[in-house]
Amino acid sequence: MTPPSVNLAIALLHYPVYNKHGETVTTALTNLDLHDIARASKTFGLDRFYIVTPSADQRTLAQRIAGHWQEGWGADYNKDRKAALDIVRICDKLKTAVAEFQSGFSAPVRTIITGATQRSGSIGFDQLRQMLQTDLGQPYLLLLGTGWGLTEECFASADHILAPIAGAGTYNHLSVRSAAAIMLDRLRGTR
Fold first, then answer.
1. pLDDT tens across 10-50, in order?
2. For residue 73, how many other CB atoms are within 10 A of its CB?
3. Which of 22, 30, 177, 186 has the most CB atoms in a 10 Å sphere around its CB?
4. Which residues are CB-neighbours of 12 under 8 A, at least 6 positions away?
5. What is the dihedral of CA 181, 49, 62, 66, to 10 degrees?
6. How far is the C-alpha of 123 from the C-alpha of 130, rounded, in Å?
């Protein structure tokens, strides 16, 4: 396996996340999240997108979905989809994703977490973009949550908190795939 060469990667965590009742749960993988975040990640030059779930069944499903487009008929039918899904890595826990991403860098991986709520000490997109461009040898793993967001323990253990995407009003409940695309454009898009 080729080590990563781009200093930004995304990890989509399905645990530990909240459900709408504030309980910590494991959420289900969605085909749309896997495809769309992989495609956005590839579009913006990333070479790693991690699907993280403790569920063996969900990891098997993720591998089956990605594998359909990485090998055989699917790979021949749609080369662009193959290229996007080739960057997908499926892990049982965040620690595994961090270790795999670390393989391409000597500096320790720094985690960046975000959610829909503004938190004190957050860094903005411009600041993170500058950090990514200034030190190409420093790997950053952007943690995205499913369900109703990542748990407080995740926020407490992250190295940085990224400010949320702000819309035009008070409603702020983007799909994770939409949020990922917006973030990648702000962090790696050409202006």
1. 999 999 999 999 999 999 999 999 999 999 999 999 999 99
2. 9
3. 177
4. 33, 37, 49, 50, 51, 52, 144, 145, 146, 176, 180
5. 90
6. 11
